[in-house]
Design brief:
This protein has 2 domains: 8-93, RimM (Elongation Factor Tu (Ef-tu), domain 3), CATH 2.40.30.60; 108-173, PRC-barrel domain (SH3 type barrels). It has helices spanning 74-78, 167-173; strands at 8-18, 23-28, 33-34, 40-45, 48-59, 63-68, 84-88, 92-93, 108-110, 116-125, 129-135, 138-143, 149-153, 158-161. The N and C termini lie far apart (53 Å). The chain is built from 2 helices and 14 strands. It is elongated and about 60 Å long. The strands form 3 sheets. Strands 1-2-6-5-4-7 form a 6-stranded antiparallel barrel. Strands 12-11-10-9-14-13 form a 6-stranded mixed β-sheet. The protein has a two-stranded antiparallel ribbon with strand order 3-8.
Length: 175
Amino acid sequence: MILTIPNLVPIGSVIRLHGYKGDLKIALNKGIILKKLKEQVFVNIAQKPVPFFIESSQQAPEQIILKLKDIETEDQANELLNRTILVDKSLVKTSSIEFQENEWEGYTVFDELNQKVGIAKELVNYNQWLLNVDIDGVEAMLPINEETLLEVKKTAKKLFLKIPDGLLDIYKEGK
């Protein structure tokens, strides 16, 4: 059990070392999107959040490589393996949109010019939400997020999306 401090939230765990100079590879919890980590993180040690200053960080969608101040050797880094990493909740991005898989199955998809694109088949999460759309027999994966989802008309079963320039052309060429 982790001692909770009101402003700290768990973001993931140290899964292995990265290199031999004490860098740590952290697997992020599902659905965690972080702002740039600059100052400090907390490591759950003996059920208490212990602060560590960050020397450097490299972020990817599902993981982070952290170099923490005063962690210089493999032995020091090994002490942090499998430990939970916490950050201030202000560093965790929250989406105002919540998706549920297959929520829009069968909806007609339109672009920002109200032109019919195709029929939504399923909503999947591959580090980001993608809508699988049948475009005249060709499957297309379209990104769904706060920027691309323009409108949902539930009673009419219609989705309006801002589709990145050229994306539909790629799928139409494969036809």
